[in-house]
Amino acid sequence: MEVSDLSLKIGGAQILEDISFTVPTGEIVGVIGPNGAGKTTLFNLISGVMTPTTGRVVLDGRDVTNRSVTQRAVAGLGRTFQTSSVFPALSVEENVRLAAQVSEGRALSLFTFPRRGDRATSRARDLLGEVGLGDRMGFRAGDLPHGDKRKLEIAMLLATDPSVVLLDEPMAGVASGDVAGLTEVIRSLHTDHGCTVLMVEHHMEVLLGLVERVAVLHFGNLLAIDSPDAVMADPTVQSAYLGEPV
Ligand SMILES: Nc1ncnc2c1ncn2[C@@H]1O[C@H](COP(=O)(O)OP(=O)(O)OP(=O)(O)O)[C@@H](O)[C@H]1O
């Protein structure tokens, strides 16, 4: 995935300015920065929720800058949001089955009842087993604890066979006892599914344990993108992000 010279101006406010970086296929990159730095806006521009004032977004060699959210999803871009986005009244299995049906180009309908051998159903069951929710398939999704909702969202993402995944604060609100399990599910996106992952996360221990590089945003500018050690040792990053050199 490549973004080049990506900028967003709203009214007189420069929200993001000339952001350029490349994430090679299969790499996990973390995105950090103080509140209001522009992390979610960057995800909105990459996923097509917002249109950049200037710049380009390239996925798998294809320029998708002028493509819609749906077209980018079809091109292999998946995303989770800061707030949970499961269908709360549906069962855990129904949530993933719908995602699998949509990715197969079938109707977003629950009136196709699950049958033995049905591809979307067996895919949903496999993925739920993989993320550790194999024993919760019949639960109402809205009743799951937050960490399991996050795992469910990842199973829904995987049902669409994404090549690039954007995760916006996946650990937000997750109970401390569920962090390790969810971390492993996120790791599997890259190790087992070969996904390219861009991840905003405030939980630094989790982030630094997962990512190969970290991008640091500050007031809409990209201060650095490098290995966690190099970024943490960077005096500009220390003074901007941590307040002062340490
Ligand atoms: N549609 C918009 N109109 C005007 N300003 C906006 C809009 N969207 C975002 N902003 C501003 O852009 C800046 C970046 O916001 P953004 O939500 O991307 O930051 P963030 O780094 O994700 O913050 P947080 O860590 O709090 O989620 C903020 O100052 C925000 O107020």
UniProtKB/TrEMBL annotation:
Residues 1-244 form the ABC transporter domain. One of its GO terms (molecular function) is ATP binding. It comes from the Bacteria. This is ABC transporter ATP-binding protein. Belongs to the ABC transporter superfamily. It comes from Ornithinimicrobium faecis. SUPFAM superfamilies: P-loop containing nucleoside triphosphate hydrolases. Keywords: Amino-acid transport, ATP-binding, Nucleotide-binding, Transport. SMART domains: AAA. Coiled coil: none annotated.
